[in-house]
Amino acid sequence: MASNSSGGGSDRQRIAQQRLRIIAGHLRRPVDVDSTILAAECKAQDSKTDVSSEGKTVPRRRQEIMKWNGWGYSDTKFLFNKKGQAEFTGKRYKLSGMIMPALKDWLEDTFGTNLQHKSPATPILTSSAVQPPTLNEAFVEELKSTGIPFSHDAEDRVFRAHGHCLHEIFALREGKVGRVPDLVVWPNCHNDVVRIVELACKHNVCLIPYGGGTSVSSGLECPPEETRSIVSLDTSQMSRILWIDEKNLTAHMEAGIVGQDLERLLNESGYCTGHEPDSMEFSSLGGWVATRASGMKKNIYGNIEDLVIRVKMVTPQGVIEKSCLGPRMSTGPDIHHFIMGSEGTLGVVTEVTMKIRPMPEYQKYGSVVFPNFEQGVACLREVAKQRCAPASIRLMDNEQFKFGHALKPQVSSMFTSFLDGLKTFYITKFKGFDPNCLCVATLLFEGHREKVLQHEKQVYDIAAQFGGLAAGEDNGQRGYMLTFVIAYLRDLGMDYYVIGESFETSVPWDRVLDICRNVKLRIIQECKDKGVQFQPLASCRATQTYDSGACVYFYFAFNYRGLSDPVHVFEEVEHAAREEILANGGSLSHHHGVGKLRKEWMREAVSNVGMGMLKSVKDYVDPNNIFGNRNLL
Amino acid sequence: MASNSSGGGSDRQRIAQQRLRIIAGHLRRPVDVDSTILAAECKAQDSKTDVSSEGKTVPRRRQEIMKWNGWGYSDTKFLFNKKGQAEFTGKRYKLSGMIMPALKDWLEDTFGTNLQHKSPATPILTSSAVQPPTLNEAFVEELKSTGIPFSHDAEDRVFRAHGHCLHEIFALREGKVGRVPDLVVWPNCHNDVVRIVELACKHNVCLIPYGGGTSVSSGLECPPEETRSIVSLDTSQMSRILWIDEKNLTAHMEAGIVGQDLERLLNESGYCTGHEPDSMEFSSLGGWVATRASGMKKNIYGNIEDLVIRVKMVTPQGVIEKSCLGPRMSTGPDIHHFIMGSEGTLGVVTEVTMKIRPMPEYQKYGSVVFPNFEQGVACLREVAKQRCAPASIRLMDNEQFKFGHALKPQVSSMFTSFLDGLKTFYITKFKGFDPNCLCVATLLFEGHREKVLQHEKQVYDIAAQFGGLAAGEDNGQRGYMLTFVIAYLRDLGMDYYVIGESFETSVPWDRVLDICRNVKLRIIQECKDKGVQFQPLASCRATQTYDSGACVYFYFAFNYRGLSDPVHVFEEVEHAAREEILANGGSLSHHHGVGKLRKEWMREAVSNVGMGMLKSVKDYVDPNNIFGNRNLL
């Protein structure tokens, strides 16, 4: 590519050598002397590596540390202790080991639960509940010769047969197991994945990529009609940071790395991606790319489409990857956007170059109490308009405010609870806030201390214009801390006849209030019509702000005692809620994705021509539907 | 979609009516009482509407106000007056009517030009140079019955047969005309476009959408091998703002609106998009979407992909449009990104909903002189790292600094030029800056006055860390003002045997210096090897900053006297420059796009699978290649 320099001259030679060095440097993997992390060679025969030696959260046999029929770690759950108090077991979380004195009453008041009426889960998976695997012998034979670890153990297969939709967990708790993968395979690196995909194409085996397993769109469900052997391609062992580029503030990772490991490892070098989805303990980089994930602090760090510099994906047609690491390009339609959102239907994302940032110098939480939800939304809208949103700003409705109170741990100090009471008195009696209307926004600021304090002032000043009252850092911090334990609460509910789900949307600003009110009303009405005996919980929060709208997150839960087919009732209400969202101008999803759960609305969302485009890409990339999770289309 | 509410009750009726009103409101076009602009009905038989009555810049017969063989307005050009001084004619620009005393010498020193040696353009297009149109009679007959205005006038056809690549303008100046459209059609609205596309599909006519005509990627060139009738679909008369939504800060426009009209019309309501590509006087919204345009102030307003809320495009398969106006979604791969960058190969963009912002309260220009380019780049990199870039920050190299001086208008005041001289003395003699090394960054800040001043201080403080010296607002302002007149300069050059082009790339931070140095060296070497008799101008500037890299813009020009085939030499050097860019880690394009000029590198840019995806979409959307400009693939 360099031109032939005619003539001699030491000057020209020097320049030519310099340029050759530069070009060669460009072709080399940019391992810098300052890079602290160097990847070990990928060994296909890698024996069982344990968590500590690799700094990895997720072992191959996930069921060793995670629940097979519920959320999260096995050692962590909500339960009622011998005294009848709600307790959060384990040692992993700030809340672990604490009592929540108000939770029992809240459950009883909100759902009409009765601790005497239990609906416990099937504790152990019985192997007989699992169909024997349908193995494609030719595929397995060739797989053996690659040395890539695999299993057709019932427990391994069941673990990867589902995400965390209500109906999936409900079924598992009943010990019911539907179509599951026939085989689980654990590639260690990109080349392993290439080999697996080649074999799958050769032997017509259905591949379902499995990252964190946190899908709430039925994305991981095995299509019951699938007659071919289904192989779950588990990316968790393919999780190294391959390089960190401090000059360009980028890092290159294998796509199986999960959020908590990625941040922890980058933090060791003083960096972060800042991508913190609520699922980050378990969800993977590849999964974020495949589902267009959004993180709590997107106001600073961006959503996944803002973070990604380059993606590598293995498809039946070969590997897709741009040639350039440039920050922004005009080279036809952006193929990254053919990959992002493909939800496992086109291939396996194996490696990603992402932006990184220096860790923030300073973090400060905050909270604001508003007299009502309308004022809170108006405040969020103004904050968005002035483009001064903190790293995170979330506005919960009154129901969630009360729910948050129910999760307050028992405090050791009489003084602290006295202060709490004082605060409540101040807000309700002194300032005249109605405890049945008020709502709370939680805030997180990050950055240089001076700028944070300035920023904080600006936001609180705006809040005051909308009747907002600063309510302290600890309320804010607790709000965010609860983020990671909320998911465990559903399992507690399900022990007492309460089922529920979260769902989300994005919507223009002028529709936010309508959507919040109308969807909640719709849920309540639908439950009533379908014979749900106790009023459901229907709650929402505005969880992200944008220039032209917001992300709204709903919780929906009800006591199903007396219903013969509670999951069916749940599904109908959930369906009606989504119809209501769409009718009110909300999107099909802000970040959870479509999966199989929301396929029926895809055509309406993207138009016939859009569907045709997506299908044309699928038909080209994967004509035999090797990546047969049947999401999206 | 709303559930059947069983039972009566005035409360329920009231709620139901409320919800119905809301849903109906969602379906209505959101014309608010506060919206100041309401679109008139689209009349297919609309007679010639002139510029002033519609607020439109671009008349149907563009040649009435624009050059047929050069850049921009007919009444504006650089020339040498009777005194041999360079003058900028007309009244449209700040620089209009001014003398540039230093320009003549700069041209002579830089290119070895001689005002005695002229290479003037062919002043008038001779109709005989234009082949008679190949009309598809059946198509024309049906077109007539639609009432949509059209022409097969030679001047109209030639005008739309090209963009502004050097080889295109050079040929026109020689009076040479290649393949041109056979017909020009001017739809007035989306429905007109639907009709035209239907007819084109029915009669197998090639459609080439034509927006601003400012393509520099050979995107508008008619493929010479095209045997079907070529119809240029000129969007300029389809240019209304249909509504402004002040609640959501969005606006909905017809895609033929050009940048200067869009901003001017929005300004009347106190808003702006803030999208200001250098071509904004003439380039259109539809063109920006089709080519993934970038604007000068993207640091505040974003690039086109950040600005677009919803796009509507007419394709042979039908109309593609999302159903929702939500700010950010996860509904599979983002179909907007199948449209953006499609460069006229899939359909015609007819309407776009974009974000708008309140006009900034305050604007302040600035400039910084650096001792050398390396320090300047390091400063830009630090500004990007601290995420405190102004609305615009551009760093030009020493060659462009000198070029900028050559364009200084004669000042009326002795005092002002004395001040200038004083400034030069201070910078060079007092501070020790070498006038052959120093370079200048121009800055633009926008926003609340207080914030701007704070921001400004932060940036100048960083600049000082890299040896940068504040050099005043007027130098900054002049730098930006020159943006719109630079394009006229090429025509002057071409009057004196100088041909040239700009080209651009995006590149990671650690490659910026290498790419700047290597590409300039390569250009100089290639010119020498190919017998160019005078050293070429090879100059660059870093024109946008991002987290992980920058946009670099090159100027390349040379005196071609003595060359028998100057355009061929030019093309070879341009090609080599792009090879050098790619070898040094730069992208194929940051914002100019691919067109036909850079097709050969597409496969390398997006990989085989990426090409396959793009082709599969093309084959589905446009199986008969109705949109046959043959860009990209």
Automatic annotation (TrEMBL), chains A, B:
Substrate binds at R490. Signal peptide: none annotated. The record marks R394 as: Important for enzyme activity. Its EC number is 2.5.1.26. One of its GO terms (biological process) is ether lipid biosynthetic process. The active site is at Y553 (proton donor/acceptor). It catalyses: 1-hexadecanoylglycerone 3-phosphate + a long-chain fatty acid = a 1-acylglycerone 3-phosphate + hexadecanoate; hexadecan-1-ol + 1-hexadecanoylglycerone 3-phosphate = 1-O-hexadecylglycerone 3-phosphate + hexadecanoate + H(+); a long chain fatty alcohol + a 1-acylglycerone 3-phosphate = a 1-O-alkylglycerone 3-phosphate + a long-chain fatty acid + H(+). GO terms for cellular component: peroxisomal membrane. It is found in: Peroxisome membrane. Keywords: Acetylation, FAD, Flavoprotein, Lipid biosynthesis, Lipid metabolism, Membrane, Peroxisome, Phosphoprotein, Transferase, Transit peptide. PANTHER family: ALKYLDIHYDROXYACETONEPHOSPHATE SYNTHASE, PEROXISOMAL. Catalyzes the exchange of the acyl chain in acyl-dihydroxyacetonephosphate (acyl-DHAP) for a long chain fatty alcohol, yielding the first ether linked intermediate, i.e. alkyl-dihydroxyacetonephosphate (alkyl-DHAP), in the pathway of ether lipid biosynthesis. Homodimer. This is Alkylglycerone-phosphate synthase. The gene is agps.
